């Protein structure tokens, strides 16, 4: 597994340049439990489709801070997501995207009509996950929702 950290939109994505023409299955990192469920579903899809898994973690950096100095150290984010991905026996990339707004970063980090997997726990107050899913759908991406018990 490889890990990259970047400012969203700071450099071209490999899929835009035609570097890696394989299908990408993108998993959006949320909570540990939900991300684990989404990664398990992505593993099944990736094996069946010979796809490449990309785990994307959006880190919101508030305006008083510079984008290169997030409130959470990048080592913590890498360790957290790497431990979730160690169970997989697939080629995978971890992308940490530092941004001010997830809506803008989502458009910059995903390719055109991406296959996106999001884990969620059904509860009435899950406005954050519902907003993320609406954003993904509104931008024309294919969304797979994995419900966690």
Description:
The chain is an alpha/beta fold and 149 residues long. The chain has a single domain, classed as Rossmann fold. It has 5 helices and 6 strands, in the order βαβαβαβαβαβ. It has a 6-stranded parallel beta sheet, with helices on both faces. Helix 2 crosses helix 3 (74-85). The chain starts with a strand and ends with a strand. Mean pLDDT is 81; it is low at 9-17.
Detail the topology: elements first, then pairings.
Blueprint: E1 2-7, H1 14-17, E2 24-28, H2 32-49, E3 52-60, H3 74-85, E4 92-99, H4 102-109, E5 115-121, H5 127-138, E6 142-148
Parallel strand pairs: 1-4, 2-3, 2-5, 3-4, 5-6
Quick overview of this protein structure:
About 35% of the residues lie in helices and about 30% in strands.
Provide the descriptors you would attach to this structure in a database record.
28% strand, Rossmann fold, 6-stranded parallel β-sheet, 149 residues, alpha/beta
CATH superfamily: HUPs
CATH fold category name? Rossmann fold
* Residue-averaged pLDDT: 81
Number of helices: 5
Assigned CATH architecture:
3-Layer(aba) Sandwich
Helix content: 25-40%
How many strand elements?
Answer: 6
- Write down the secondary-structure element order: EHEHEHEHEHE
Beta-strand share of residues: 25-35%
Low-confidence blocks of residues:
9-17
Shape: globular
- Computed over alpha carbons, the radius of gyration is 15 Å
Backbone structural class: alpha/beta
Strand order of the largest sheet: 1-4-3-2-5-6
CATH class designation: Alpha Beta
Characterize the main sheet. 6 strands, parallel
Terminal CA distance reads 28 Å
- Total domain count: 1
């Amino acid at each position: 597994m490889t890990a990259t950290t970047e400012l969203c939109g700071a450099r071209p994505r490999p899929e835009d340049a035609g570097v890696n023409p394989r299908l990408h299955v993108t998993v959006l990192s949320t909570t540990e439990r939900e991300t684990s469920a989404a990664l398990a579903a992505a593993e099944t899809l990736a094996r069946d489709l010979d796809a490449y898994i990309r785990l994307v973690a959006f880190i919101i950096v508030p305006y008083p801070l510079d984008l290169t100095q997030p409130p959470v150290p990048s080592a913590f984010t890498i360790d957290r997501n790497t431990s979730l991905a160690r169970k997989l026996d697939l080629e995978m990339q971890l992308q940490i995207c530092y941004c001010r707004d997830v809506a803008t970063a989502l458009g910059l980090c995903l390719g055109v009509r991406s296959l996106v997997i999001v884990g969620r726990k059904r509860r009435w107050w899950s406005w954050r996950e519902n907003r993320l899913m609406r954003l993904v759908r509104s931008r024309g991406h294919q969304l797979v929702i994995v419900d966690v018990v």
